[in-house]
Amino acid sequence: MPIPCCARATAVLVSVMLTVAVPAIAQEPARPTNPYSQRFMELFDTNHDGKVSLDEIEADQNRLFGAIDVNGDKALSIEEVRRRGRFLQMWRTTTVFDLLDTNGDGNLTINEINSPTARWFKRYDINGDGVMDVNELPDRKGWISGRDRR
To answer: Do 117 and 107 form a contact (C-beta atoms < 8 A)?
Structure first.
């Protein structure tokens, strides 16, 4: 029995729609499975491609650095860090300040701030492609998708 013309047209239309829709679905970025990863992607995936590059993280750090560098000398003193008040103190910034001040001059440069971030990023960029997708993000304890920490 021959297939009616409208049924063939419908089959062709469905075939075309699937050809267009399936690649679009396959290219959709993975969604974070835990709140930490979800928040990380919201904060740092500024181009909304489902991946976070070191440049995206450093751009945010540069923005925050500029906001804290009250006198504009391209270095953060302990006074400037303390002046930002409760928000930074909540993150125990004075302790972090001492850890980041690698040359011990009492000031933080953007390079001193970005250096640990670059090491962290390299550790978790599992495939080494220069971006992190949701499958490469560590959870709060530093574990990635059931894989041991490096």
So the answer is: no
- Going by the DSSP 8-state scheme, the letter that residue 108 receives in this structure is E
pLDDT in tens, 50-75: 999 999 989 988 888 888 888 999 99
CB 20 within 8 A of CB 123: no
- Partners of 114 in the beta sheet? none
Is the distance from CB of 131 to CB of 52 less than 8 angstroms? Answer: yes
pTM: 0.55
Are 61 and 94 spatial neighbours (Cβ–Cβ below 8 Å)?
no
d(CA 73, CA 79): 13
Helix or strand run (H / E) with residue 112: helix 110-124
DSSP secondary structure string for all residues of 32-65: PSSHHHHHHHHHH-TT-SSEEEHHHHHHHHHHHH
Q: Walk me through the domains of the chain, giving residue ranges and CATH numbers.
A: 32-136 (1.10.238.10)
**67-102 pLDDT tens trace:** 888 899 999 887 887 777 666 666 555 567 777 888
